[in-house]
Write a structure and sequence with these properties.
Blueprint: H1 2-62, H2 71-81, E1 88-94, E2 99-102, E3 107-110, H3 117-124, E4 135-136, E5 141-145, E6 184-189, H4 191-206, E7 211-217, E8 220-224, E9 234-238, E10 249-255, H5 260-330, H6 336-368, E11 376-378, H7 380-390, H8 392-398, E12 401-405, E13 413-415, H9 417-435, E14 440-448, E15 451-458, H10 490-500, E16 504-507, E17 516-522
Parallel strand pairs: 12-14
Antiparallel strand pairs: 1-2, 1-6, 2-3, 4-5, 5-6, 7-8, 7-10, 9-10, 11-13, 14-15, 15-17, 16-17
Amino acid sequence: MRLLVAIAVVLAAALLVVATLQYQWIDDISASEHQRALALRDMAAHHFAGDVDRDVAQIAGAFQATQPDEVAARYREWLTIAHDKRLIDVIYVADPNRIQRFDGEKLVDAQWPPEFQFVRDQLQIRPPPRRPSPLIANIPAIMLPMRPGPPPPRPRFEDRPPPDEFGFGPPPPMRPRREPPPATILIQLSREYLTRSLFPELKQKYFGDEYDVAIVNGNEFVYRSDPKSARADLSLPLLRVGPPDTPAWRLLVHRRGVALEEVVAASRRRNLVISSAVLALLAGSFVLLGVLARRAERQRLQQLEFVAGITHEVNTPLAALTSAGQNLADGVVSDPKHVKSYGAMVVKESRRLADLVAQVLDFAGLQSRGASPRRESVDVASLIDEAIAQSAWIAEERHVAIERTVPSDLPSVTADAPSLTRAIQNLIANAIRHGGDGGWVGVRAVGEDGNVDIVVEDRGRGIAARDMAHLFEPFYRGKDSNNVRGTGLGLTIVQQIARAHGGAVTIDHRRANGAAFTLRIPAEHANV
């Protein structure tokens, strides 16, 4: 027992340690899942912004420091590396005096578009103001200064005045050096292509259906994958072609449905529930092992008590039979009156021994028999009479009167007559042994609700409440039955026989004095 207690303590301590470690492990796993989800979201957002910025940067690099006559060549070079030529809507080359439009092959004169009017105003200023970023976010467009052309030619020598008499000519007049007006290339990006093709394609590529994406220019929504979504879990600059701190569009990312933190928390709760269930199952297994160990120990003790009880029960009639037989064999008893008395004692002890052997054989047979008993139509009244006759010697020994109440119209039952008789006889014998101090045992039968109820009752001290739950356990003997002979198998055999016939045996818990057992068997017509 001490070893079992020590093992239980060690198992409980190990279970506690495992539960603590598992709780910490689940917390670490949840934190790792949260960080991994955030990292995947941030990586997808940076890939989205990087693809857009790379396309725009390719445009800025292709047309950087160009001249008007080089626009067509630069455009063809850009086409060789462009993701999609639809990204550029139109290209303009402008100076303070005029604006030209690139038609795909050459520059042609054009009118100033209204959206570029502020550019024309800036070009009129000398020198024109330097823009912090090539990006014009509202259009959107990229504005790049063009490479200046060659300077104007110097005056030729023959244009100078002749020298004077001393050989010195007048200094040549200082002609102001004119610089050509500054030229600018304006590359207008296609907003329709961005919002209807590029942004949806990148959103599905990097975010799938898990996140919503929006592109904003200041307070204006340029693109939204979900028109109802206006929140942002992450914000990144977009269309970055200038210094990092210059204004640009922004990419907004928001998780669709439940927030990421709530998803991680729900996953943590789910893991805790599963882990708790596993630990509870493990703890239940430990408890079950303990219960089974205690039950096995209790059954071992019960079996020892059963063997001791059987030995005692068998030894008593055997000793009486041996003594009586020895006396008769030795001629100690010769008086016919005493011989008759000895014969009656031999018969009584033989019946007691036969009854004991029958109980043990019945229990062993019912435990091992898997097939149903042989069934036939039997009269319940005859079974009750047979059981009372078999119990008469016990009633005479205990001075107990048996009262029989059986109606004449009691329905028959389909049963194995010997086993059902044994069940009734066990109930009667049990009532005589444990409730015989009341001097009366009643046996009555009644048919109702398609069943036949056989009730055996007594007027003894009754059954203690602590014994009620264990009455039908094999080898169990109540605390108040130590002075009563028996094996603790009678009620177990009755229950097994009742179940084999599709019935049941119950006890009336409402009785204050005495005990009443009811054996219920389905009537014959109920089995058809």
